[in-house]
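Subject: sequence -> structure tokens, single chain

Hey, anyone have a minute? Need the predicted structure for the following. Not urgent.
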Amino acid sequence: MDFVSPVLDVLTRLYACTAKYAADIFHLKQNLEFLRDRMVELKNLSEDVKTRVELAEQHNMRVRREVEAWLWEVNFVEVRMEQILQQGDLEVEKKCLGSFCPKNFWSSFKLGKIVSTHTIDIVILLGRGRNFDSVASWAPRVRVDEMPIGHTVGLDCLYEKVCSCLTEDKVGIIGLYGTGGVGKTTLMKKINNEFLKTKHEFGVVIWVSMSKQASVRTAQEVIRNKLQIPDSMWQGRTEDERAREICNIMKIKRFVLLLDDVWQRLDLSEIGVPLLSLLDDQNKSKVIITTRFMRICTDMEVQATFKVNCLTREEALALFLKKVGEDTISSHPDIPNLAEAMTERCQGLPLALVTVGRAMANRNTPTEWEQAIQELEKNPSEISGVENQLFDVLKLSYDSIRDDITKSCFLYLSVFPKEYEVRNDELIEHWIGEGFFDGKDIYEARRRGHKIIEDLKNACLLEAGDGFKECVKMHDVIRDTALWIAQECGNRMNKTLVCESLRFVDTGRVTSWKEAERISLWGRNIEKLPETPQCSNLQTLFVRECTELKTFPSGFFQFMPLIRVLNLSATHRLTEFPAGIERLINLEYLNLSMTCIKQLPTEIMNLAKLRCLLLDSMHSLIIPPNLISSLSLLQLFSMYDGNALSTYRQALLGELESIELLDELSLSFRSVEALNRLLSSYKLQRCMRRLSLNDCRKLFCLELSSLSLSYLETLCLFNCLELEDVRVNIERAYDIPNPELILRNRQYFGKLRDVKIWSCPKLQNLTWLVHAAGLESLSIQSCESMKEVISHDYGASTSEHVRVFIRLATIVLGGMPLLESIYQGTLLFPALEVMCVINCPKLGRLPFDANSAAKSLKKIEGDLNWWDGLQWEHETIELTFIKYFSPQYLAEVVHVSGMGV
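Reply:
Had a minute. Here:
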């Protein structure tokens, strides 16, 4: 019997091994369900991590590489698991013998093994993701942030006095006061930037922009960001606790705190600024404030006070003549004397000189100048109050606007908050909704709107935004002037109401709504609205970015019979469609973008006058059948960046196609079937302004018609994993023998401005972009198979210096390990401002010569090793561009200001 034990041992081991394999086969269905459940957990966890990452990025924090790698792995696993689960479901369905035995043991065994292995991997991923204590860290901050500043006139003397106070031990707080627009902020920026140029012993320089609505919490947030106080020491704390945290850090630093545009007394200790007189002798910190009121300096116990005076006659005339322009001044012998008289009436106020000077540019006859001077004289200079003097002067620029539509567009900007940067397109869409461009189609209205924006910018009534390129803002004094004019020069103060950062709208404010024609409510602090406000004259209502507002009272819209523009965008916690909107029968513009409203009610069919409907970034929004097609006057429809059209939602395209007046569409797609439905419709393509393809499976080739998509402005391709080629169907668009003639005449994709291609790993090149003559922004990232942007074949077949990328201002290339060429020849890049190249190690040459981007280039960003390895045709070319290079150490996706989707 001695042989029995070994035999039993062998049989036991064999059974254990066989049982394990059998489990993979016979428990396949259970294992698949377990895997599916874990994938749901992983997806939810991934969304939570992404939310944390987005919040961190909003605070200018740097995402940890471990987190970026984990998110990348999750994205990869999601795609792979979808395929495995589909394959597993098919395998389970093929079982025989009462759904017990698989038809193919070997196939089931291999699949079961894969399921078991990947389940372990997913469990590990879940564990890693749950262990992220933090997803980002603070990026190191510079001691001084440079502030944008233009040419200065007449500030040097006062600047020297302020600088001398910075070295005096007895002076802790310095105050600069003067009328609005006199140059206080400009002087403060000059002081701030000088810290970048000179040696000093201050550890940090902090700039805080104050305003009428600014609070202690506002100042604390800015200082906290500069000092990089972590969330663990900040979130959930009271103002007093936050003040203590700030004070504990600032009392051991030597700092300069610049508080610009202070409207009321600030108790610095409430913010957390330590009392300067109590700091030790080594800590000679300083505070500088600017304000319109001398009493603020007294109330804040300023030790050195300086009035910022208006310019002298000579300084004012020099500034005024610079803004009018030499061509206008020399156009008639009488104009120089008239210009001097006009300068005197501006009373040396820099902002008035700049604004009026711009208004007088191109006024080439003495009659025009004399008439303008008479208009100024209609308002006597002895009117009390600095503000009125300023408004009277600035109103000349408004009066110089020659058509009522442009005037209306200018005044409309007063409904936006102070210092708010509004996108050009968003602003124009509001103007369209207000009916400023009635009788014109959307494209003509946009063209007119962009021209008005440029006219207002040229007249210094609008400024370019500091952030995104396609944004504008108003100087605060200009905005105050516009609001004053909109309120009929102060005679009807309730005609236009702008309320910011209110928690509750009290009864007193609601009473003033009776007279209002436009009401603008902004800010995350607004939590509750009045029940049934009486707004019989109201035509425009903004309830925007009210992130704490969850619902509207049921009777809120009951007494608003005339309202035609309603914007609820970015009110993120709004989940239900507000009751009563469907009764606003005069409504022409409705914006629900970036809300969490789940479903549109069928009663929206009652909005028979609706022309603009914006539903961007509304994930999983349900739109009842036949609702959109019932809006027969609809001209603009946008459902972009979020609620992508799938195979099961193609019916919406049919409804849109049936609307006769429809002019403009912005849509996102995530299925080939829905995309093909679009590409088969000439009308829908011709209306398309923004087009996004997200996660389109089985999309191997994208064929674009340059004729049908002639109005396309933005094209985004995200995560199209099987896309191999993008082609332009020239033959169908133009039946001509020489298509290059059209290229030279810019007839292909003449409107296309912005292209983003991200995570399309099989895409070989983007040669079709040679047809996009107006392209301004190009971002290509994570296209692992791409070797060249414009193919070598195209460059070789073109003998002349091609007109490719002639308007391109920004190009971003990232995460493409095989990329070797942007273009084989050299390109002029006459508009290029920023080039960013990250993780493209084989890109050994740039299509530059000595003339490329000669007058436009501002910056080239990239890996230092990549830059050092670049090959140049001549050493002088390298020397030309090396001054623009800035090392960039990001390992993954690159984001450039102004590149928002």
